[in-house]
């Protein structure tokens, strides 16, 4: 998609946040073409912002500054993540009704870009706030942080060693269980082999006894006949 306008800032719109004051920011839209370009700006929280102008026309190679302010004060520590969508498109003639134009416009002919917003940090206030903290408090905070880090590191080493010991014990238990199962299986095989051998020997003995009885019967029959 061809870019009709250059948008500044491109990613984040930063708002100055001061106590009991409305937050304010600016958008810059520059027409990159040799034709008139119309723009329209939307936001995810329209009740929080006043965008002036939110709809308009930019002549060739000209720049339009958009003033954006909040409708209520914003605290510097408040959750603040609204988004703005900047749409731009070429327009045939200046007298065209822009509201009607954007209602009927084909999406494929629109350059659309989303810009996130955030609260700008006041570096000077941060420095003053840091200077107001007594050195003893800073030192105490540093020591506490260091102790917490050492404690976490020591705890991490202990937990790591404990986990390894538990894992080794688990493997050892599994090995011993497999050994016991192997011994039981071996004994079972030996017992079944012995039983099979005993059955075979018994069958052989029965056959021999039967054969002997037949021979005796034949001999007895022969003797009686004679």
UniProtKB/TrEMBL annotation:
PANTHER family from the UniProt entry: AT11025P-RELATED, VESICLE-ASSOCIATED MEMBRANE PROTEIN-ASSOCIATED PROTEIN
Phylogenetic classification of the source organism: Eukaryota, Sar, Alveolata, Ciliophora, Intramacronucleata
Keyword Membrane recorded: yes
Coiled coil: 161-195
GO biological process, alphabetically ordered: endoplasmic reticulum membrane organization; endoplasmic reticulum-plasma membrane tethering
Full protein name: MSP domain-containing protein
Species this chain originates from: Paramecium sonneborni
Main location: membrane
Membrane topology according to the record: Single-pass type IV membrane protein
Signal peptide (residue range): none
Residue ranges of the TM segments: 207-225
Sorted UniProt keywords: Coiled coil, Membrane, Transmembrane, Transmembrane helix
Annotated ranges, domain MSP: 4-120
GO CC annotation, single: plasma membrane
Intracellular or extracellular location(s): Membrane
